[in-house]
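User: We ran a pulldown and think these components assemble together. Before we commit to crystallization trials, I'd like a predicted model of the whole complex to look at. Sequences follow.
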Amino acid sequence: VKAKTKAAKEVGIDVIDHHLKESTNQNDLITLINQLNNNDDVNSILVQLPLPKVINEEMVLNSILPEKDADGFHPLNVGKLSISPKNDDNLMIPCTPYGCLLLLRELNINLSGKNAVVIGRSNIVGKPMAQILLKESCTVTTVHSKTNNIKSICRNADILISAIGKPEFVNKDWVKEGAIVVDVGINRISTNEEKSQLVGDVQFNEVKNIVSAITPVPGGVGPMTIACLLRNTIIAFKKSKKI
Ligand code: NAP
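Assistant: Here's a predicted model for the assembly, 243 residues in total across the polymer chains.
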């Protein structure tokens, strides 16, 4: 949240941080969202997930006006992502998978026809990632904790996106030589000196030697997520001002 606030301020977006008490209930939260929905000075709203278990996440996300939905998690935006044409630049797209696409585009390769495997099927990363890659005409396979022969499916991937949340779970045996690997995972592990360190889902040091490109953790997908959050906010602002 700190990094998001800092990045927004850097580009001239005003941020109002509602840091709520632990005792906040669902009604209080939705009331606040409604106030922000009705405030013309607020163009974009983000509810930082995960929410406490007593609060129904779906109801909260649904209460954000779709046109102010900075994360792109409202069902209308989820639906638009799946049915709109490829080059619709006005969509509120979930920030992390869109950031992954922008990273892939930087490689200047033709994504069409590539075999893409997405590990993870969460609403915030895995599912929208698969939709986005499908729009790029990749042949997309989504794998998850119940998938059989997951390693061999991953070994077939030209593009492997990992969004599991398990430290260094994907090793070189999962990855085809020359593949492109995007590591979404952010996992904190303890090191020998009683310190902790951030690592991804992928064994970076081992995998980097056989792939054509791989994102590091930290410093790979994370900053792209923040950049795409700013992008969505700008889109929301422009739409509200009819620019
Ligand atoms: P999530 O909701 O916990 O989903 C994890 C997914 O991984 C689930 O679909 C799960 O399968 C699958 N999975 C778990 N164990 C598996 C296994 N052994 N084999 C295959 N699939 C397995 O997590 P998330 O919110 O998508 O986040 C995933 C990771 O990305 C986390 O580390 C998170 O911190 C990170 N993240 C990073 C950013 C960023 O900006 N870089 C943004 C968002 C998330 P089932 O559905 O079958 O349980």
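Strands lie at 115-119, 139-143, 159-162, 180-183, 187-190, 196-199, 213-214. That may be worth checking against your pulldown data before setting up trials.

User: Thanks, that helps.
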